[in-house]
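My main concern about presentation is that the manuscript never shows what a single data entry looks like. Each protein is reduced to its one-letter sequence and a matching series of backbone shape codes. For the editor and my fellow referees, an illustration may be useful. For illustration, here is how one protein appears when written out as sequence plus structure tokens:
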Amino acid sequence: MDDVVRRDSKHLMLISPERVFYAGLLGRPRQRTSGGFAIYVSMQGALHVSQGGHTSVGELAVVEPYVPHSLKSEHLSVISLVLEPETIPVDALQALSARLSGPSGAALAARIRGAYEALRITGRRDGFTTSEFDTIFFGQELATRSIDPRIARAIVRLSDFSGAAVTAADCAASVHLSQSRFLHLFKDQTGISFRAFRAWKRARHLLHFVNEDINLAHLAQDIGYPDSTHFSHSIRRFYGLQPRAIFSGSRDLAIYRSNCTGFNEFELRQRRQ
């Protein structure tokens, strides 16, 4: 689909290594398990979010990272924000969750919808920063989580899919740690195992290509999946949809990316801590 059609589309996504904003078709997902801190906002009507045996109904819902949940919407489209938990302190995420779930939640939902409308009408440029993203949608910059520099370096490598697949042994050797010590430190710093973290980042990278006419088997290989079966199972686990369904529903999606040339922004922000 040409750029003019995409620019005029009501569906858009902002994506960086630290944040995702998506406004577009929901489809009919089964249970999903996002690796990020997920915020859902209804376009119109209510959202029905089921997690842990409980279903909440409202215009806004928050789901913690790696928590299986299902999502239904009374409107064909939905707004979704994903914040990578390793980039924000735990207490800051808890404070944001309290804001979203408390009396100010309705105002934040209205702000997020208003920001979407502004983006839809005025368009967007590539090259946004995390600070700019947070200010647009939340009205303030969220705090930066301080991570052990050795683990921060591994996180940057796991977010880069331009080269060979990254292994725990590679990361451990690059920071002069044994593999067992590295894996223990990684989980201690991020709250999740290296393997689960890498699986999420790999599936997340798919989002960069969802509006392209591309061979899915080739894409699976390019982003590190051993075969199409693993690719399909992983994407379905994280997004509740088969890859083909995601691509089918994203043909008119306008995608705007952050500018992470040189050092990854995450690494730059860590250096300022």
Summary: The domain at 3-138 is CATH 2.60.120.10 (Jelly Rolls).
